[in-house]
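Researcher: Let's continue the batch. This sequence belongs to Glutamyl-tRNA amidotransferase, and it's 122 residues. Same format as the previous ones, please.
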Amino acid sequence: MVSAVRYGAIAKYASEWELKITDSDVLDVIRKQVKTHKESIESFEKAGRTDLVSREKAQLEILMEFIQAEMSDTDLEKIITRILSTGEKNFGALMSQVMAEVKGKADGARVSGKLKELLLHP
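Model: Same format as before. Here are the structure tokens for Glutamyl-tRNA amidotransferase:
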């Protein structure tokens, strides 16, 4: 985990990473690791590798302790509805605005799905 954080920080800040790294940067790396572990669990379950599933779930459980509680669907919908009320229709621009507001509190895939849903059925 430490090496993943270090690698992510170096990629973002180059040689000054130790001076510039933030808690948000660390949480971003943890979220990426969580996503990777979830994908691995799914793949290992399909392959019948229960030994690897157990290991991945144990690691995932530890990582989940570092992530703040996710935003509720109701709160996410309120934010998206408010942003949609500006009249913007470009999905990319909307996604960017919503993610800036919910960063660290909602997964990007979840935001994307909810945004698409509310764009189609306001």
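Researcher: Any comment?
Model: The first helix runs from residue 2 to 13.
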